[in-house]
Amino acid sequence: MKARLALFLAAAGALALGTGCRQEPSSPADTRPLPSVAASPFVCGHVPADAVARITGVRDPLVRGFFDLTSANGLGDGSCTAYEPDGERPKVLSILLDPTAPEGEVAWELRNGGAKPMPQIVPGAEGYYVPDAHERTGVTAVLVRGHVRLSVVLLKGVEGRDKVADVVALMRLIAPKLVGERGDG
After folding, report:
1. Strand partners, 116
2. What's the rounded mean pLDDT across residues 6-28?
3. pTM score, whole prediction
């Protein structure tokens, strides 16, 4: 009787381990490039939700922020931050529109900060990007036109995606509206 009970418990434990620890297969990374035109729905009023999900790998992120393009004498300001929706909710993407860019910031970063030049995105604007130290996790990109600075910080990218291309593509989608012709550039 004890042998049957032990055998039953062992079989039940193995079955529980076999089914309880089985993980759902993860879906492969979406490696399609971001679209060249911003499309709704938008988060924070100006950032394509699909682009955020694609470059961070986070579906339905928790998003906070807004942009006021009429503030700061028409230069605009604001922010948009996306977080993981569960657990400790780590930040995965941060976008900041700031009307106080210091003169010469881009040139200094390119000369001294290890930054690389960003392609032309908005007429009269110049920019740079800096991959994280190991080029595995994130990238920071900055676009400046006059006193207006738009920063995109990708804190969590998707394995298998080109994080630099993603940040530059996101900048191409949002900069025309957020920076446009602002900034006395």
Report:
1. 129
2. 42
3. 0.82
pLDDT tens for 34-59 read 988 998 999 999 999 999 999 999 98
The CA distance from 168 to 118, in Å, is 7
Residue 152 near residue 141 (C-beta atoms within 8 A): yes
Tell me the CA distances in angstroms from 171 to 22, 24, 43, 88, 153, one per residue in order. 40, 34, 15, 27, 10
By C-alpha distance, which of 61, 57, 69, 62 is closest to 28? 57
Q: What domains does the chain contain, in order, with CATH numbers?
A: 38-178 (3.40.1000)
The stretch 141-167 carries a mean pLDDT of 94
Instruction: State the residue for tokens 């979406």.
Output: 30
Residue 21: its pLDDT value, please? 39
Q: What average pLDDT does the segment 3-10 reach?
A: 38
Residue of 37, 93, 108 lying closest to 61 (CA atoms): 93
Residue type, 113: G
